[in-house]
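Would you be willing to look carefully at the protein I have copied below?

:::
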Amino acid sequence: METLDKQVPRLLALGDAAWTLEFGNDISAALNARVTGVADRINQVRQQLPLLASVTDVVPTYRSLTVHFDPRDAHADDLGTWLLALGKEGHTDERKGRQWRLPVCFDKDFAPDLPTLAAAKGLSEDQVIERLLAAEFRVYMIGFLPGFPYMGGLPAELSMPRLASPRQRVPKNSIAVAGAMCSVYPWESPGGWNLLGRTPVPLFDLQHAEQPAMLAAGDRVRWYAVPRDAYDHLLALSQTEALARDTFLHSETKA
């Protein structure tokens, strides 16, 4: 059986306007590094290779990469052949990604599923919080909603299934877990993940036209706890655009 880093990618047609490179069936940092490594390589050479002139978007996921193109201008078969060859070269993401330290408030109004998760795992609520704060999360992909980060790195002892009955309204900026993943709902929406806290930091902002989504694949996130009054203060600042994103970048990743 092939190991994760030796699996040969598969090329799949997604209609007549996209190719998908599938690198494996698992969700892991190693597999995701292959995906983002190839995505980076494509973006590096897009302006240099005429074959890529028709490419309109490059979309990484946990374990695959989809390249959208304009079928009116593309040499689709040649593009697919090139992508498969690139995928076989074994590019991996060597970037550390940006490192974020983001505040989270565990006030009981923000964490309705914290008691249930703690009881299910035989832990106190404080122990659940300690484990969450000790973990480093890697952003595998953005999806479901604009700015919604799927993050690996959740401690195994905090893994929980989705709710049997999803909520019709999950409050904006809720921190949630499901399975082995952690995320933040950047918008109020329906959702079935377990809500453990809330951050005052907006993860999607159209004022940042170059990158409305604050997080990107390959970024790393650590949480730190703040009390309710600090949360309210930070939230007020964010609503007046006085809270710069760089405030939460780890010093080593600031320009």
Q: What stands out?
A: The chain has two domains: 4-88, 99-253. Residues 99-253 form a domain with the Cyclophilin fold (CATH 2.40.100.10).
